[in-house]
Specification:
This protein is α/β, with parallel strands linked by helices and 349 residues long. The chain has 10 helices and 15 strands. The protein binds nicotinamide-adenine-dinucleotide.
Length: 349
């Protein structure tokens, strides 16, 4: 099986899903600054904004990001949590006449956050503080923030809505909740207008060269097992779900990227200081559903190894998506089959 080779990737190659949805309006010549724009999700948002004719500037330290993912977008390479970040951001805002920011840059590995909580705090919360300081100094007041369903912790409901009391169970989820709180404080303090998007389980790819290269989530992990011809591990098959394995809400990265464009447009027309939106499909798939779908799409039988539950895994975590549907007019267009097919197609090229 071929794995993606970013060096050889063609910019803006053929998309992996046919039904791309470009339903949202144009920003009319504004510049959007994306932190983490060279990452997996950020590069999809970058690509959609570029395709819509917007000017994009990317800020990324390239620790996980890949330069070739952002095409001809300007790159400012800096660690957002570093001392020089605020002045460099201020300079970039001014030079490029930035009007809106999408803040995706963060460390995102839950296990790593448990091992290195201070570093996660420094990177994710420190980076957010520097970004907000630079935005305040520069008078840039529109922000879309990448939050996460990890803020909810272990909710005891089938579908969690945005008003649910957040109780993160790991340092990563806590840094995302802290980020939301910092943005809300800035909204009250100096007039920031902010949207937090709480992503559920992001997977799939819009273009082969933008594929997720980190095996941190179930879909890439199972594909990696397939490539290595080893059995994927399933943690627990005795959860109170239909087949006993954990159920999650998988959202196609292209749908998620569209939600960012909708959020930017919303900030353009709505006066509310801040708001929080779930980004998911509202439909849950179990671990075994995902493995079965990968088996079916790849035409390879995959037999998982069942291991004991991991501490802190909620049985089921699915999004209530009523708010984003009502306010943005956004809903996911792609299902689990589309997600898996897009990765399979990208890997088979
Ligand atoms: N992938 C998911 O399923 C998922 C789910 C919920 C939330 N999120 C959030 O979405 C965002 C993007 O995630 P992704 O999956 O694209 O991850 P990614 O690692 O592919 O992208 C993150 C990007 O940010 C950059 N970066 C990280 N820390 C930085 C720093 N201190 N300074 C400058 N650049 C930095 C990395 O180089 C990388 O390009 C993250 O904030 C993550 O927490 C992701």
């Amino acid at each position: 099986m071929l794995l993606p080779n970013a060096e050889n990737a063609k910019s803006n190659s053929k998309p992996c899903v046919e039904a791309c949805f470009y339903g949202f309006g144009s920003l009319k010549g504004m510049t959007v600054l994306l932190t983490g724009g060279a990452g997996y999700i950020g590069s999809h948002v970058t690509r959609l904004l570029q395709n819509r004719g917007e000017k994009v500037v990317v800020v990324d330290d390239l620790s996980e990001g890949i330069r070739s993912r952002i095409g001809d977008a300007e790159l400012v390479q800096v660690d957002l949590s570093s001392k020089e970040a605020v002045s460099l951001l201020c300079e970039t805002f001014k030079t490029h006449k930035v009007t809106s920011v999408v803040h995706l840059a963060a460390r995102k590995k839950v296990g790593e956050s448990v091992e290195r909580p201070e570093w996660y705090e420094e990177q994710n919360v420190g980076g957010m503080k520097n970004l907000l300081a630079a935005m305040k100094l520069s008078g840039v007041n529109r922000l879309v923030f990448s939050s996460s369903a990890a803020t909810y912790g272990v909710p005891d409901v089938d579908q969690v809505d945005e008003d649910f009391d957040c109780k993160p169970i790991n340092p990563y989820g806590q840094t995302k909740l802290d980020g939301e709180h910092l943005a809300q404080a800035a909204a009250k303090d100096w007039g920031l207008r902010e949207v937090s998007l709480r992503y559920f389980n992001v997977a799939g790819t819009g273009w082969p060269e933008l594929m997720d290269t980190q095996a941190a989530n179930l879909v890439p992990i199972v594909f990696q097992s397939l490539a290595k011809n080893v059995s994927p591990r399933v943690f627990g098959n005795d959860f109170p779900t239909e087949d006993g394995t954990c159920v999650r809400d998988y959202v196609h990265v292209l749908d998620l990227a569209e939600a960012h464009l909708a959020a930017i447009d919303y900030l353009d027309r709505d006066e509310r200081p801040y708001d929080v939106f779930n980004v998911g499909t509202g439909v849950g798939s179990s671990v075994l559903d995902v493995i079965r779908e990968i088996s079916s799409v790849s035409g390879t039988e995959i037999v998982p190894v069942i291991e004991p539950r991991r501490p802190g895994d909620p049985a089921s975590l699915n999004a209530n998506v009523n708010r984003i549907k009502k306010v943005f007019g956004w809903s996911a267009k792609h299902d689990l089959h589309d997600i898996i097919s897009s990765v399979w197609k990208a890997q088979s090229l």
